[in-house]
Amino acid sequence: MPLPWPKPYYTPYLPVPDLLFSKPLLFSTLSSPSHALLVDKAITLLKFHPNHLDSLSSNFTPESASFFLLKSQFDQTLTLKFLNWAQNHPFFDSHCKCLSLHILTRFKLYKTAQTLAQNLALSAGDHTGSSIFQCLRDSYHVCNSTSAVFDLMVKSYSHLNMIDQALNTIDLAKSSGFMPGVLSYNAVLDAIVRSRGSAKLSAEDLYRKMIRSRVSPNVYTYNILIRRFCRVGELEKGLDCFGEMERNGCLPNVVTYNTLIDAYCKLGRIDEAFGLLKSMSRKGMQPNLISYNVIINGLCRQGRMKEANEILEDMVFKGFTPDEVTFNTILNGYCKEGNFHQALVVHAEMVRNGVSPSVVTYTALINSMCKARNLNRAMELFEQMLSRGLCPNERTYTTLIDGFSRQGLMNQAFRVLNEMTASGFSPSVVTYNTFIHGHCVLGKMEAALGVIQEMFEKGLAPDVVSYSTIISGFCRYQELDRAFQMKQEMVEKGVLPDAVTYSSLIQGLCEMRRLSEACDLFQEMSGIGLPPDEFTYTTLINAYCVEGDLNKALHLHDEMIRKGFLPDVVTYSVLINGLNKQARTREAKRLLFKLFYEVSVPNDVTYDSLIENCSNIEFKSVVALIKGFCMKGLMHEADRVFESMVKRNHKPGEAVYNVIIHGHCRGGNLRKAFNLYKEMVHSGFVPHTVTVISLIKALFKEGMDEEMSEAIRETLRSCRLNEAELAKVLVEINHKEGNMEAVLNLLTDMAKDGLLPNSGKTAYAGG
């Protein structure tokens, strides 16, 4: 007599089963003499001669396989052996798979069960999940199963992104008297979040449904929700969820904190990320390696390399070993700021620590060398990567192609392209854009247009960068009619011009003294809701200065600031030159001081607050101001700004020191330059090679031998690469013999080869 079903909470609705799921047979009807005899033979062979089991395969049917599973369901070893043999045979149908899921779940073999459940979900042709559910329900008692089998099925659907089937299984389980647990809801929540908005039900709606069903969320539930909010930039909702979690007595884990720390970092709110990291320790939660990597990544994204290194040191002090992610993050940070010396130092440190550099590592280094125009070194790194058995990816090849193209070395760029395609990679739009840029650099505009045509032939649509690069090229060579034709073509192709497109056209018009048309284009740009950038403003300011209309130039300068753009050294140089040409020197000086000293500007925004806001990006406006003074030889004014920074507790960064030291070298105040150099080194910064060589040359010319020797010693001390050892020895020998011309030549060559430091906190302070 069949066992009774569990009493449902309400009458379940089940659609007509799929044909693949014929009505299941009871154990008593399966145990016919023929089935019993076949199964007994199979059991004997499995136990003693498993290799001979194939001799019975033609005799097995879905019914006899089901009988085997039911008879052996309490013998784990025998069941697993049979499943391993039977699951690839045609007789092993959906009913057999459902029986197997019950048995595997009861044995708590969840990984094996999930693999089988996913196979069932994909092969059953059940688009709602109803037929599979009914089969599982009908065989529930005969297998002495538990409701965990339904959680497993929901999890399997979710893993396959079959969200509708997963949700329907939850509803059917509830209507049949089973209570899906938090595991089911978490699995579907995770699938919905991974679907990035394509699911019919939102994560928040499912969470509310879960609460209404009186299923208590756990730490994984909250982590999924917090991840969802943080991914779409809704950090405040994530923090609300974090607060609810704590109020409900659910303790956050390290994943919770890492998710929120990462969200803070991505929004540039590093200080709040630090605060959360510190609060972990106060609450007895220890950060892990991921916690530190996330913070380091956030700092590197903002160019705060000194602080990133401090976190790295703290991390190592607390017993964590930097991994590939840590090293790649730091290395990439140095590469982004152009400090290829420190990037190479990190690479060497990485190898010394037994961490194998990856393709990501080498691609970042190659990119850094290409930006430094050191293509020989870039190719050396490429060859080194190959010798380590690493395969370049599309980005590696594109980086090299871009490096060659930017220097007009198109033959070498094409050789890399051929190697790229031979390795199985198809050039992307980005790859083709590098070729367009290379042809434009050489003035080969027809060749650039040919690349556009080739892209169409290969089924690739040129993007705004493709068109803007060609437009910029036509403007550079004063072919404005063709530039405007290209603008028209891109619009017809559905590609909208961006600020770069308009800025290139405006610059082209200004260079041809067609200022009125440039202003019309400027207005058109604003009319379509495309805000001009610093380059656009500076181009127009320069044009007005050339025309002698300083009032309009100054008006644009004020508008630029009003709209939140900080004029850089180029903008100020343009205005200073314009004012000086009209003998308005006093006004030029006043303009330079304006950015740092003016009390207020329109819209109640103070310049002081602008400088405060720039503190996280190395006081960009202040660096520009000091550089402007140094360029004009106004070193007294540059010193006043520098001293004002110190008084306001703004610690000068590498950029400020490099600019002002170089300025004093040019101005002849070598005592001041050398004192600033010592102060910079004492602060843990490594001066840029240009700064060092400029200082050493100036000290040599003035006969300041003691100071010059100290600068050379410090430079060589900070040079830690093995491949620089020979050059270091040669420098020391020539220095001792007083052959300063050879010393300076060697230092210059070392700088070109990337063997001298650029900038950044030295990793070896103190020797």
Q: In words, what does this structure look like?
A:
This protein is 68% helix and 0% strand. It is built from 42 helices and no strands. Helix 13 (235-247) packs antiparallel against helix 14 and helix 18 (324-336) runs parallel beside helix 20. The model is unreliable at 1-27, 582-589, 591-620, 720-726 and 759-767 (pLDDT under 50).
Defining key terms:
mainly alpha; about 0% strand; elongated; disordered C terminus
Q: Estimate what percentage of residues fall within beta strands.
A: under 5%
Class inferred from helices and paired strands:
mainly alpha
Number-wise, the strands total: 0
Task: Give the % helix.
Answer: 55-70%
Distance between the termini: 87 Å
Per DSSP, the total helix count is: 42
The overall pLDDT average reads: 80
Give a topology summary.
Elements: H1 27-30, H2 33-48, H3 62-71, H4 76-86, H5 94-106, H6 110-123, H7 130-138, H8 148-159, H9 163-175, H10 182-194, H11 203-212, H12 219-231, H13 235-247, H14 254-266, H15 270-282, H16 289-301, H17 305-317, H18 324-336, H19 340-352, H20 359-371, H21 375-387, H22 394-406, H23 410-422, H24 429-441, H25 445-457, H26 464-476, H27 480-492, H28 499-511, H29 515-527, H30 534-547, H31 550-562, H32 569-581, H33 585-597, H34 607-613, H35 620-631, H36 635-647, H37 654-667, H38 670-682, H39 689-701, H40 705-717, H41 725-736, H42 740-752
Helix pairs in contact: 2-3, 3-5, 5-6, 6-8, 8-9, 8-10, 9-10, 10-11, 10-12, 12-13, 12-14, 13-14, 14-15, 14-16, 15-16, 16-17, 16-18, 17-18, 18-19, 18-20, 19-20, 20-21, 20-22, 22-23, 22-24, 24-25, 24-26, 25-26, 26-27, 26-28, 27-28, 28-29, 28-30, 29-30, 30-31, 30-32, 31-32, 32-33, 32-35, 33-35, ...
